[in-house]
Amino acid sequence: MVLNRQQVEEKIEEENLVEDYPHLETQITQNGFDLTAGEIHRFKGPGKLDFSNSERKLPETEAVVPEKKDESDDYGWWVLEPGVYKVVANEKVNLPNDMMAFTFPRSSLLRMGVFIQNAAWEAGFSGTGEFLLQVNNPEGVEIKENARVNQIVFQEMDEVDEGYDGRYHEA
After folding, report:
1. Nearest of 147, 58, 42, 59 to residue 105 by alpha carbon
2. Residue 83, domain extent
3. Per residue in 17-44, pLDDT tens?
4. What CATH number corresponds to the domain at position 124?
5. Residue 162 lies in a domain
6. How many domains does the chain have?
7. Fewer CB within 10 Å, N- or C-terminus of the chain?
8. Mean pLDDT of all residues belonging to the chain
9. Closest CA to 102 of 85, 132, 122
10. pTM assigned to the model
11. In which residue ranges of the chain is pLDDT below 70?
12. Residues 6+ apart with CB under 8 A from 58
């Protein structure tokens, strides 16, 4: 069963399903929760992937620095040319062993020629999400710090014996 707004809010308040969010009422949706952009990085080298992950190597990245358009602004803007970027969310997600999640780009980004690629969030994962942002608009895009960019949808399931225990677990 996919959690609705009331169920998501209850699990956030009672079980810390999502932490470190800028504004709960703005971010909670009818069928999920909007994740916000905390950092954006450019890729600066190649990655490596093998079957066992014993030789896996993530590419180096470089933070894109947001620029304030007005000194009175609290937040700056990332000015992104066409290309591929890594986004690090502000929020930490804590999935119990009976829940997984899927993420989808907000439709506003799609209307701007910008795509987000995501992986499934496994039961038992606890950590800050990272996802791929691909700017296909030849004119680029501007994204303000803390903009809502990605919606996470929570799916209840039968509990797994062992939750996620991979490299990116922060708990």
Report:
1. 147
2. 5-156
3. 999 999 999 999 999 999 999 999 999 9
4. 2.70.40.10
5. no
6. 1
7. N
8. 94
9. 122
10. 0.92
11. 166-171
12. 47
